[in-house]
Structure to design on (1277 residues):
């Protein structure tokens, strides 16, 4: 006999414990019939034998290519910058001295030194281009590459397929969308946003479990009651905002009722030694959490190294206040990246995950070759360098090169759309598979004239 | 009951929709342009033949199927692409025929300058612009590219001329061997070019540049004719998916000539889902709706609209008989009729009272008020209710908060006394319904102590001229100037010179510390200027496109700015606030986002925005008049339930657009229904979220539900999207759960009073949803609250947990969390 209103919180009178709560929830709503849906969606466009994950690290602010991974030691002083090039594991590939650890991993990752875009040189355009492959125009908002994956493959079990951490990119001056959501695919395919700092000693994903005094039975009863109240909705639920809210309800319920899913987010379960390896920074711990999530079924993790370019020391080194200058990169930003990024690769390799997990680190543009009077460099989408490897991507390759001064691509220019196409191809998709756009207009994953970078695949 | 009424009207609508209007038939042909004047021998003019229907609407480009003939082919001839070439001076006619329809148009070829030498200003620069050479991403970048630096989109012809003819040891133009000029070999990729192929050898572009060089590279002259305006024809077309339409673009020059620039412009479409446009000005219709097609030429933008009705068979009576309460409805219904979108019927009284309470005051109506309203038989009761709400304290609280978002009130940059002074100032302005014109003037010219004169805090929040210039532009004109700080605005007409001329109007604002903590005194210094960063000199102070400040102007620079900004002639000033208020009440700006007014971001209903702005000015910038007028319209009062005929409408207001309550309103609604007030740190118990002057007051709930940070003047700061973090918080977080568990609130009271379950459900529905539950709903809820064997009895008091769970379900439902 089940009594619903007993007052003992820790162990429920129907024999349910909080632990059992987890099992009750495995009948997730999201699961109902959906695997078939996703299977059908991807049947036409993907190689099912490939189950590749991806960690996309967005270097918000735009790292200076000359001072990082495309050094120009023979350029005149006003271009060269203060950092010396060093040799790396792969003969012929040099990076600057502020990335000593990265230098040991160039056999695992490749560099594209000829990425460029021709849109306005503000952060926001680069964010859109690099994460969706397109510049938003004509009223269409395109989906983030991770959201395309969510749409085509769906979740593995109760855990969301795409997690974004710690937060979406905030305002960076352009008042434009940053390409970090599902765009025209609809809010249901937006990433799960962590909204917490895994480096915080009190870190936890908020509200993952009901409070002690709300039993599992009551959670289910509440949900049932809510469904009844909603039955008499008068028809407005068809509107996108109302649908989105309901999706969020279902996803929350799925997540909170799965122990595996909840524990995946629990970074405190990682030994201190592992946590220290990544560096005790927000970014470092995000990299660790990304590895943990991939291990437990998340398919795509987007890490924003910074939330914005204001009020933080970032890659946005204009030199003039409040921004930092070139020299200051070596104090904080570069070592933080160098340590966490290389540890991530190390760990993925050690755990056998690197074979099916791509890791990409990229910014929204490069920086002006000529050093400005404030000792900084300004926005320069003319050419820059990104890092990528893992999964089906080859390591130790340099694609393209910039000219002597780092102004423009000298060979094999690469557009953001080609980068996105490469990620999609790496994930196993036909890059010209068509998605249902606004008004059911078919939109290919990337434009028909865009191909993945074959040298890397 | 209500559900049934709605269903009935849907069926009614469907029945009406079936009544078909006739298919569109061309009634006549029209030629664009007409008459045709070729400004010189050798000039060309693209011709478009358009079918016109009985209502004088352009309904399709029939040029490819029409028969075109020039009477005297020694004067002008047509080529295969439909371009007319002038051969010798004279007059003739162009004859057009399609089936039974014919048309004749006068053609005149003028002699013009002979021989014609391309002009640097009017031929060379447009080629560079159209080919993208001087774009922000290429040589137009602040630092140039590959050693060549042109002015962005050619705004400085003198400098571009110098750069092209004098720099790089003259290699860019080679007078002796024009074909070796870098200006020709680079863009054609005859030699390697970082920017790739811009135009082909032998193309029109190539020949214009080659001709100019071969003629000795004549310099731009002060008496060159300049463009005065640009027009695009036909201005409006109504098409169907699959159609294509050629547009003709004409530049009107200061020497009176009109020249065809159809192949010299750049084109964009505001809505590619509806129409795409090629680089030759041909729009291809892809879907239904409305798109603006833009032709960009220098700093000029011309536009034409492409309307693709969703249906053409909706009976006119559907629109003619739809409710109209004021001019808003006339204009909205006109647009809906053009697009073939039937409007939803009016919402019922219960929905209306809840909706208007939330939109006007951010609060829920008391159950007694709802019942009184429903029982009221006065046909004008909705108007009376609106009037009543505009006079409440809650209205003042709500709109003060709304303005506080706009003015970025936050303790991040303002100490407490200053913050309070600013908030008090805004509250007074709302309470006495100060005209928006006065508010803006008082803010922009505020002087004295920021604690005495709260508006002066505007200058404490935004200390430097750059911030002041840009914030002022977004706040009052809904226009971003940021781009023009470093270069001419790429999508707008604003130049860097205009930016610094405007910035200079703020150059003499000074701050000094007052006597009290947090006190700052704002005053104007007699001198001081802002330097233009590239020119190194101050620009003569002038507001954007206004006249420069006269040297003998009696007031301060700020006063001059405020006068211009708030004048009736500055259309953006009224337009911006009208659009913001509209967005607040109807969920989407007529221009969206609401603070992004620019030529290339079209209004979904331009006549509506124009008229509403004009009326707002006529009514003395009266915000209450504006709010009242919008709330009184049938458009505002339509049902939120879409029908299959209008469900796709995302911008034309055929039905009321639902949206989640904002973070603050939702928090207050929880507190109201549970009767458990919030305690925000540093504020007395019971202070509502909407009354907080500050967004730094800690509240996870408010943050996760999208409270803005008030750091950037951008409507994008407030996030109304749903997220899993929000719903997890409703399930498991403390905010709502603590209110349900409280031993002081409504739940505790009802338990103490032993209210039976049935009555509790009824009261809760009235409080939260402004409606009564149906018998069936009560039964089902009782069942869910009971055991497998027996439903919870409706006539007996529920347990605390039952009541808590019931409240939870209602308070997280969409019927509660949304305004609908």
């Amino acid at each position: 006999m089940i009594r619903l209103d007993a007052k003992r919180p820790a162990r429920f009178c129907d024999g349910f414990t909080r632990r059992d709560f987890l099992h009750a929830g495995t009948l997730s709503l999201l699961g109902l019939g959906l695997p078939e849906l996703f299977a059908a969606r991807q049947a036409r466009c993907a190689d099912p034998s490939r189950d590749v994950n991806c960690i996309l690290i967005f270097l918000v602010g735009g790292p200076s290519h000359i001072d990082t991974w495309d050094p120009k030691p023979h350029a005149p002083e006003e271009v060269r910058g203060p950092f010396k090039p060093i040799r790396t594991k792969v003969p012929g590939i040099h990076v600057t001295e502020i990335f000593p650890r990265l230098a040991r991993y160039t056999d695992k990752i490749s560099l594209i030194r000829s990425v460029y875009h021709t849109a306005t040189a503000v952060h926001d355009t680069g964010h859109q281009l690099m994460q969706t492959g397109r510049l938003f125009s004509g009223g269409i908002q395109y989906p983030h590459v991770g959201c395309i994956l969510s749409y085509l493959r769906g979740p593995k079990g109760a855990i969301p397929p795409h997690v974004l951490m710690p937060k979406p990119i905030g305002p960076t001056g352009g008042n434009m969308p940053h390409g970090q959501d599902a765009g025209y695919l609809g809010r249901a395919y937006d990433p799960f946003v962590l909204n917490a700092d895994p480096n915080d000693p009190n870190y936890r994903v908020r509200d993952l479990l009901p409070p002690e005094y709300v039993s599992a039975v009551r959670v289910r009863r509440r949900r049932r009651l809510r469904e009844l109240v909603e039955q008499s909705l008068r028809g407005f639920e068809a509107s996108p905002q109302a649908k989105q809210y309901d999706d969020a309800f279902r996803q929350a319920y799925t997540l909170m009722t799965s122990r595996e899913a909840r524990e995946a987010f629990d970074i405190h379960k990682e030994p201190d030694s592992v946590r220290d390896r990544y560096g005790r920074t927000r970014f470092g711990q995000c990299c660790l959490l990304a590895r943990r999530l991939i291990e437990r079924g998340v398919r795509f993790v987007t890490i924003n190294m910074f939330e914005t370019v204001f009020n933080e020391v970032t890659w946005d080194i204009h030199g003039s206040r409040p921004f930092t200058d070139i020299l200051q990169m070596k104090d904080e930003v570069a070592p933080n990246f160098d340590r966490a990024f290389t540890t991530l690769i190390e760990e993925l390799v050690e755990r056998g995950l690197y074979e099916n997990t791509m890791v990409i680190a990229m910014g929204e543009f490069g920086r002006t070759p000529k050093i400005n009077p404030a000792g900084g460099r300004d926005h320069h989408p003319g050419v820059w360098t990104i890092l990528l490897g893992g999964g089906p991507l080859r390591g130790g390759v340099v694609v393209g090169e910039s000219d002597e001064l780092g102004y423009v691509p000298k060979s094999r220019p690469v557009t953001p759309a080609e980068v996105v196409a490469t990620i999609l191809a790496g994930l196993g998709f036909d890059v010209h598979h068509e998605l249902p756009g606004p008004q059911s207009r078919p939109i290919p994953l990337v434009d028909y004239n865009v191909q993945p970078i074959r040298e890397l695949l | 009951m209500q559900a049934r009424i709605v269903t009935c009207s849907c069926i009614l609508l469907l029945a009406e929709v079936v009544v078909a209007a006739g298919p569109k038939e061309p009634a006549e042909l029209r030629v664009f342009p007409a008459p045709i004047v070729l400004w010189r021998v050798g000039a060309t003019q693209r011709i478009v033949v358009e079918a016109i229907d009985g209502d004088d609407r352009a309904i399709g480009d029939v040029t490819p199927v029409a028969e075109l003939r020039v009477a005297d082919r020694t004067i002008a001839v047509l080529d295969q692409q439909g371009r007319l070439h002038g051969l010798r001076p004279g007059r003739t006619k162009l004859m057009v025929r399609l089936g039974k329809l014919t048309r004749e148009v006068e053609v005149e070829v003028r002699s013009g300058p002979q021989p014609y030498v391309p002009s640097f200003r009017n031929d060379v620069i447009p080629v560079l612009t159209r080919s993208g050479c001087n774009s922000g991403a290429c040589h137009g970048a602040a630092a140039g590219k590959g050693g060549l630096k042109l002015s962005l989109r050619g705004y400085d012809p003198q400098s571009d001329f110098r750069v092209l003819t004098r720099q790089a040891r003259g290699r860019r133009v080679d007078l002796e061997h024009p074909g070796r000029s870098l200006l020709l070999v680079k863009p054609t990729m005859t030699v390697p070019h970082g920017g790739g192929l811009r135009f082909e050898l032998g193309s029109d572009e190539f020949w214009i540049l080659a001709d100019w060089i071969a003629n000795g590279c004549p310099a731009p002259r002060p008496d060159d004719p300049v463009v005065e305006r640009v027009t695009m024809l036909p201005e409006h077309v109504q098409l169907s998916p699959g159609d294509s339409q050629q547009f003709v673009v004409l530049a009107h020059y200061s020497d009176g000539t009109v020249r065809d620039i159809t192949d010299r412009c750049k084109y964009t479409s505001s809505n590619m889902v509806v129409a795409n446009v090629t680089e030759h000005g041909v729009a291809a219709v892809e879907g239904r709706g409305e798109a603006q097609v833009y032709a960009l030429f220098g700093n000029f933008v011309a536009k034409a609209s492409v309307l693709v009705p969703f249906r053409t068979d909706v009976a006119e009576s559907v629109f003619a008989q739809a409710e109209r309460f004021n001019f808003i409805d006339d204009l909205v219904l006109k647009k809906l009729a053009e697009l073939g979108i039937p409007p939803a019927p009016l919402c019922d009284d219960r929905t209306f009272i809840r909706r208007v309470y939330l939109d006007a005051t951010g609060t829920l109506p008391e159950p007694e008020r709802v019942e009184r309203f429903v029982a009221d038989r006065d046909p004008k009761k909705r108007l009376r209710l609106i009037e009543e709400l505009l006079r409440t304290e809650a209205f003042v609280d709500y709109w003060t908060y709304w303005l506080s978002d706009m003015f970025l009130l936050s303790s991040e940059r303002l100490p407490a006394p200053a913050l309070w002074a600013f908030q008090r100032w805004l509250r007074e302005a709302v309470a006495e319904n100060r005209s928006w014109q006065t508010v803006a003037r008082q803010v922009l010219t505020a002087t004295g102590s920021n604690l005495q004169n709260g508006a002066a805090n505007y200058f404490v929040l935004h200390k430097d001229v750059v911030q002041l210039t840009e914030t002022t532009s977004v706040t009052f004109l809904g226009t971003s100037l940021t781009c023009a700080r470093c270069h001419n605005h790429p999508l707008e007409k604003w130049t860097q010179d205009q930016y610094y001329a405007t910035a200079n109007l703020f150059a003499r604002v000074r701050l000094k510390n007052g006597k009290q903590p947090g006190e700052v005194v704002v005053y104007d210094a007699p001198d001081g200027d802002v330097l233009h960063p590239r020119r190194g000199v101050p620009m003569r102070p002038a507001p954007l496109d206004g006249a420069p400040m006269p040297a003998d102007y009696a007031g301060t620079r700020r006063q001059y700015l405020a006068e211009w900004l708030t004048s009736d002639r500055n259309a953006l000033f009224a337009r911006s606030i009208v659009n913001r208020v509209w967005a607040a009440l109807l969920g989407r700006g007529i221009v969206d986002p609401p603070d992004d007014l620019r030529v290339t971001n079209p209004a979904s209903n331009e006549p509506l925005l124009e008229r509403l702005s004009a009326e707002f000015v006529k009514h003395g910038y009266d915000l209450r008049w504006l709010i009242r007028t919008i709330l009184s319209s049938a458009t505002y009062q339509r049902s939120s339930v879409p029908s299959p005929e209008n469900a796709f409408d995302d911008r034309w207001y055929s039905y009321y657009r639902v949206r989640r309550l904002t973070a603050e309103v939702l928090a207050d609604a929880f507190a109201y229904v549970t009767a458990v007030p919030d305690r925000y740190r540093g504020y007395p118990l019971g202070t509502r979220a909407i009354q907080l002057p500050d967004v730094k007051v800690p509240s996870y709930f408010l943050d996760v539900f999208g409270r803005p940070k008030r750091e950037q003047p951008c409507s994008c700061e407030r996030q109304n999207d749903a997220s899993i973090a929000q719903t997890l918080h409703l399930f498991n977080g403390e905010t709502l759960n603590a209110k349900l568990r409280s031993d002081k609130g409504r739940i505790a009271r009802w338990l103490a009073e032993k209210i039976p379950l049935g009555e509790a459900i009824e009261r809760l529905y009235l409080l939260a949803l402004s409606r009564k539950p149906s018998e069936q709903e009560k039964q089902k809820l009782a069942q869910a609250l009971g055991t497998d064997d027996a439903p919870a009895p409706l006539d007996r008091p529920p347990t605390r947990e039952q009541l808590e769970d019931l409240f939870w379900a209602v308070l997280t439902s969409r019927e509660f969390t949304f305004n609908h």
